[in-house]
Amino acid sequence: MKNPLFEHLFKKHENSEKTFLSFVDGTSLTYGEYIRMIYEFSSSFRAMGLKPGDRISLKIEKSQYFLVVYGACIHSGLIFLPINENYTTKELLYFLKDSESNLLITTRQEVIQLEGKITNTDLFIETLEKDGTGSLPALAKCADCLTYPEVRNLKDIAALLYTSGTTGRPKAAMITHENLISNSKTLTEMWAFSGHDKLIHALPIYHTHGLFVATNVILLSSASMFFLSKFDRDIIIKLIPKSTTIMGVPTYYARLLESPKLTRKLTQDMRLIVSGSAPLTKEMSDKFFERTGKRILERYGMTETNMISSNPYDGKRKAGSVGYPLPGINLRICNPETGLCLPPGKVGEIELKGKNVFSGYWRMQKETQEAFRLDGFFRTGDLGKFDNQGYVEIVGRLKDLIITGGLNVYPKEVENVLNRFVGIEESAVIGLPHDDFGESILAVIISEKGNKPCEKDVIQYLEDNLAKYKCPKAYVSETSLPRNNLGKVLKNLLREKYRNYFTNLKKS
Ligand code: AMP
Question: What's the gap in Å between 301 CA and the centre of ligand 1?
């Protein structure tokens, strides 16, 4: 095969008149039109002299042109590097330098910000606006249209994705053609996608969830999607009756539940509602089920590995669990220090091996080595366990694990208990430096509107439900938890904010 990923996802749509994307304003884009634009953009890349393996950074807002650049990179064998449009110019400069990008595609506005700051004189810069204007489309119209794809093999890098890590130097995960082919195939089959599906796509597309999970599954199954620039509850409520499926993060479902319009009747034709990228609480899953009669299917994955596990499509979906490892993925739970495998029920680090796993961090040999065991298993840094039916449950990030007085406390276990207390909307439990215990536990509480619980009652309730060493030593109230765009709680920011909480207490 000449270019495995292009053949797998794009080529077959060449002359199709089927709708690929529908937009909120009532307009749409067919698959055939999409592939034609890919050929035009790809031709302009080749006219610039770009060669397979060169890096193309893309920093624009979500639009169909973002997906055109993605397809054009695959077609011309270039490495696609999508960048969150909210990143600052300083961050962008880091990514351009670290990846040694050959071309940056961005807006005119960003180009003005960059003036005089780029040190790499070989870097091409082209503009592309949300409405499809700019210097890149102008070039594409002039270039001779080349439809043949560049030759690639399965192990070649298709994309570089900077991980959303919140500490240290951002690392770019090298995602291969094989990673994307195997994962899209598995998910399409597992979740029974077909050409009849219509997906509500409100996710960002610089991230693996919106780009490689949602978009690749749609391309592979020849389905179509309502392509929203961002999450908008009222628009989504209107689109639900015209759709068969939605993929989202837990905060989407929390916000949909706030609307009384979310009912059984509204969602009756939705066959699949998927959640991932952050933990969906059991309470939220149950609430959604009570309201709509639909059990959200929770899955688990990460930038480096694509999707890892999923609750079953047919069969029992367990609230609070991320389901079974996907077919072809070898998943084990290990003691993080010794690397020894642990039996069901025991919490340890989630490790895995499979065609879905990335080939390493771009030009970071040491970090790559540290991320893999000698037998090739990737260390996710997530803590989890198998239950006795083989479902995986995530209990948090290894770096969020609290060790207090020598005992391990998994924040999620405490948060799960706290979140069940009437009046607590959500909570985040963190470990902070403490002179005697090493670390001590602080609970950050978000109360339900107008229903602030009494602290004494909360303390009593926790002591009734958890071993004493797991109970927080202090409680603070906030109005909301800090989150990134995908709804992940940024515990590092909370730890930073309250860093001296216990040490100051002692002094005072
Ligand atoms: P990212 O690389 O940005 O996709 O983040 C991956 C991380 O998100 C994983 O390592 C997990 O910590 C977390 N994550 C993804 N899906 C889930 C889920 N369903 N439940 C809990 N955490 C999740």
Answer: 6
